Automatic annotation (TrEMBL):
Top EC category: transferase
A GO biological process held by the record: thiamine diphosphate biosynthetic process
Source species of the chain: Leptospira bourretii
Molecular function in Gene Ontology: magnesium ion binding; thiamine-phosphate diphosphorylase activity
Cofactor dependence: Mg(2+)
Domain of life assignment: Bacteria
Family designation: Belongs to the thiamine-phosphate synthase family.
Gene3D superfamilies: Aldolase class I
EC number, UniProt record: 2.5.1.3
Keywords: Magnesium, Metal-binding, Thiamine biosynthesis, Transferase
Protein name: Thiamine-phosphate synthase
Binding site for Mg(2+): 71, 90
Entry GO terms, CC: cytoplasm
Residues that bind 2-[(2R,5Z)-2-carboxy-4-methylthiazol-5(2H)-ylidene]ethyl phosphate: 139-141, 170, 190-191
Amino acid sequence: MENKIKGVYLVTDRPLCLHHNLAEVVRLAALGGVSLVQLREKEADSRTFLELAKHLKEILKPFSVPLLINDRLDICLAAGADGVHLGQSDLPWWEARRILGEKVIIGLSLETKEDYFSLIHNDPKPPLHYLAISPVFDTDTKTNTKPAWGLTGVRWLKNETHLPIVAIGGIKESNAADVIQAGADSLAVVSAICSAKDPKSATESLSKKFHSLKE
């Protein structure tokens, strides 16, 4: 399976879009070289969520950047998005795979080592596209989470799995290099791009750092 999970991964948060609206943040991030975008809408009604997903998909289409939907398989299907990101309390990933098919990107958050051990007993076939280690560092954008994994957690998971690892939680310019060197295949960021005055420049900076250390 081709690994599309690498580089900078934008996870959206409309309240954190301080200087631009969501669509403009996503457009500028795409110009800056973002690799994936996840639309995360915890409060929006289904119709608003769907409209946002369709709009972002059109923005990202010229850049060939995949759009993933947080949690909602129905929105993914209705919008023709490229995949979903699931948490431990969402629909089980194998049910999502059955519904969405083999080609759609499915990623899964791991909050504890026990989550990982439970996963490998299920022997995912076809495999998940990535595992998200969450949170790497404590952050205000991810609430009700287990204790942070830290860099040691990233290194541990890298040694345990062949799947790409997405690191999320408290990642910013100042610690990005450490997370990459610990083994992350992708840096999922929220406020570092959404709240930036220049989302394009913020994305470019993180992307250059990633590729300089990975290539």
